[in-house]
């Protein structure tokens, strides 16, 4: 048994070591990267299912690294966080996203993801505000998405940063809701405008009573707090039907569209051509 344990430990260490070396590789490539040219955005529509209409787009970043190929944001964003590159990435993403959003009709909004550091570091939030203000884009057509974990990391600073963003007229949503540790008590104290219900609660909601109950109570709660609820990760007609029954208004997911390049978003010109 002892020998087996030791073998297990060796295997475990090997896995850890290869994860660490991948992290190191990504970290080094990120530090050497020309982010202005290597980062690109894709946009996933946010659909109003009552109107059957795209009401906004969430900007999602993609990194095309010359040495590593396409690296997912799920992998490089957390690394950028602890190497201090996140401030730059957020501003580049926001600038690019605003340029694209300027080509959309007035009734379509832009939703941008922020990282924990963007809201727990006072200067970062201010720089976001100034990026928005110098773009000339109407801040009322912008929404920022922040995660529960970011908020819980430094609750007091999070309130200040969220309020800064609200003061210029932008909306702020709590992303991945239900996956973190925030108590409802806490959420109530944040100056939010929306809650995004995490995709894990949507998966097979038509056959999983537990997911159904969770989504139902989060919807009731958000209505009570005066917050709009968005459900993300809708993949099938069955899931959508249940959400419709529950009175959900806004959704995102592969069922409607995967994230698309800027050129495939609705532009003012394409709308004029249709009319
Ligand atoms: P997120 O903000 O929760 O974004 C949703 C993720 O789910 C996206 O993955 C999206 O492509 C994917 N998705 C959308 N609909 C479906 C669906 O129906 N089924 C499934 N299985 N997945 C769906 P993506 O683009 O790989 O982004 C992963 C995470 O990386 C994001 O999660 C967000 O936390 C982070 N991220 C992406 N772009 C940015 C950014 O510009 N800034 C920051 N700070 N974080 C970003
Ligand atoms: Ca998001
Ligand atoms: Ca999310
Ligand atoms: Ca997520």
UniProtKB/TrEMBL annotation:
<feature type="domain" description="EAL">
    <location>
        <begin position="23"/>
        <end position="273"/>
    </location>
</feature>
<protein>
    <submittedName>
        <fullName>EAL domain-containing protein</fullName>
    </submittedName>
</protein>
């Amino acid at each position: 048994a002892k020998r087996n344990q030791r073998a297990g430990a060796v295997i475990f260490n090997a896995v850890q070591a290869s994860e660490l070396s991948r992290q190191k590789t990504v970290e080094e490539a990120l530090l050497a990267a020309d982010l202005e040219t290597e980062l690109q955005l894709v946009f996933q529509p946010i659909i109003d299912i009552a109107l059957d209409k795209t009401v906004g787009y969430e900007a999602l970043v993609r990194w095309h690294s010359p040495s590593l190929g396409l690296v997912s944001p799920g992998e490089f964003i957390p690394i950028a966080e602890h190497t201090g590159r996140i401030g730059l990435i957020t501003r580049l993403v926001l600038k690019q996203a605003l340029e694209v959003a300027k080509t959309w009709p007035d009734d379509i909004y832009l939703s941008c993801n922020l990282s924990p550091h963007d809201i727990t570091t006072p200067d970062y939030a201010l720089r976001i505000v100034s990026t928005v203000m110098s773009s000339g884009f109407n801040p009322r057509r912008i929404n920022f998405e922040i995660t529960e974990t970011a908020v819980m990391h430094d609750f007091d600073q999070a309130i200040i940063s969220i309020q800064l963003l609200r003061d210029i007229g932008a909306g702020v949503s709590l992303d991945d809701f239900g996956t973190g540790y925030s108590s409802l008590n806490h959420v109530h104290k944040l100056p939010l405008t929306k809650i995004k219900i995490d995709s894990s609660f949507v998966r097979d909601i038509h056959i999983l009573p537990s997911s159904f109950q969770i989504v139902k109570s989060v919807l009731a709660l958000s209505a009570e707090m005066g917050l709009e609820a968005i459900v993300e990760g809708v993949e099938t007609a069955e899931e959508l039907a249940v959400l419709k029954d529950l009175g959900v208004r806004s959704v995102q997911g592969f069922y409607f569209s995967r994230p698309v390049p800027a050129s495939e978003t609705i532009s003012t010109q394409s709308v004029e051509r249709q009319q």
